[in-house]
Design brief:
Helix 2 (about 20-30) crosses helix 3 (about 35-40). The chain starts with a strand and ends with a strand. The mean pLDDT is about 95. It has about 70 residues and is α+β, with helices and mostly antiparallel strands. The longest helix is centred in the last third of the chain and has 11 residues, at about 50-60. The protein is built from 5 helices and 2 strands. A two-stranded antiparallel sheet has the order 1-2. It has helices spanning about 10-20, 20-30, 35-40, 50-60, 60-65; strands at about 5-10, 65-70. It is about 55% helix and about 15% strand.
Length: about 70
């Protein structure tokens, strides 16, 4: 049985700490507001490039923002 992994994130927490709107964050990383909304709702897994961009704008490590779990939602 092949279990898929689950990628969770804390984008909304980091964004709230900066007091940025979804649109402001989207503008900073070059995506649409809808992409940020989908990411925060765990309906979208970012590309590696977007994950690095988010880490850069938040001045954080990728593992501080994203967590991976094999087969289980976090």
């Amino acid at each position: 049985m092949d279990k898929k992994g689950y990628l969770g994130n804390r984008v909304n927490v980091f964004r709230a700490e900066k007091r940025w709107s979804q649109q402001e964050l989207a503008d900073k990383v070059g995506v649409s507001r809808q992409t940020i909304a989908s990411l925060e709702a765990n309906k979208y897994n970012p590309s590696l490039m977007l994950a690095f961009e988010l880490a850069n704008v938040f001045d954080a490590k990728i593992d501080d923002i994203f967590t991976y779990s094999k087969g289980v939602e976090l």
